[in-house]
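Proteins fold. Shown next:

***
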Amino acid sequence: MAIVFQGAPRTAKRNPTQRARRLEHALGIVLLLLFLILLVLMVRSLTTDANPLPAVMSIAGLVLLCFFYAYVFVLPDDLTSIATDRTLGIASRLFDNARLGFSHESMDAVCAIVLPETLAAAICFTDGSTVVASTGERSSEFPPGAPITLSTTGAVIASGETTVFASEACPEGTGLPLPLHAGIVAPLKVGDDTIGTMELYYRRQGEVDQRQLALATGFAKLLSAQLATFELERQSEISARVELKALQSQVDPHFLFNTLGTIVSLVRTDPEKARSLIIHFSDYYRQTLSDSDKPVTVAQEIAQAMRYATLMQARYGADRLSVKTHVADEAAARLVPSFILQPLFENSIKHGMREIGTLHITLRAHLIEGGLALCVEDDGVGMSRETAQALFDANRQRSHQADGESKGAGLALSNVLARIHLFFGPDSRIDVESTEGVGTKVTIILMGEPMELLMKEDRHVERTHS
């Protein structure tokens, strides 16, 4: 039989914070009793004793008691609150500036934040070989881009450990410009790699104490954490961009050969239609292979999807494929990621078309609260609930493809989902409704406004190489 003891566990009694709180409460009760006693003595002295000395002593005791109470209970909380607010404010400012990466602009702003919090005369950030940013006394002697002469910098890059040094201990030509005689070099790390250093320079060796060392180490760790976050986000974006570029640059050989075959067959029988298809074909691949990092308007994205539909109508015949669009005027100019509607059209045609009869596809675009909805609906063969639920399982889709099964619909939707998350964030989504024998409806929900990733990446590159 298990026995449960209600209340706080035994370990809670050993909590030093709780013990301190209990001590504060006990001391507060004692002070209150002393206050009451002194107050009673003062009143009694004033009313019954002609000698004013006891009353004066009682008043003095009350004043001292009030000062003691304020010193023990009120002032520490105020000082702690002020110190906490200041520390959080500094950390927040460091994060705000370091979120743009290890660039001259961001580190220059960090220099202005860190230097006043230390006794250092100057501060410098390096990438291990050159100066990234610096400010303070004699900073003009090591401007951004200048080569590193301090031997300690290389040692810290190699060891990844914070190091304190004195200029006279450095080999000739590898120290600091006078009158800076000592310093602290702290590593900036991303994972296990040391990507740079933060260096504080002092006029006197005596100014380098444990507090300065703790400040340098703490600031370096804060910056390292933010730089690591920035690098993870950047690598995630680069990975997603590479995947999307690969997806966009893929040319389906069957689609290519079938379309060319259709055009060739029309050259003699209907040259005007063949000419029109060549124009659509050229425009389609020009847009498909163009830069996909910037959003396009809904009207442009629909035009690209309709080029694909036109080419497929030429292949299957107008009696086999019918496409209609319903686009609200206010939605046509909204920005969306490119190459998100054509995969939905392709899925409907490849996986929804029956052996006989016409496949009807309807595209709708309209605004919703806080965003935009794009819906592609068909009356094709549909799919089971289990198949629909597995559409976004990319691993399962790749496994099916490796086994030779035709499960491209899931991969296409997974890639489109990755694309809208890259531009719009995780609040955007894709909803799929399907019934076997009835049809499928795929709705893309885009919340907010798209982020122009290319511009952000270009700014990062410019800052890195400035």
Notes: The chain has 15 helices and twelve strands. The mean pLDDT is 77. The two ends are 71 Å apart (CA to CA).
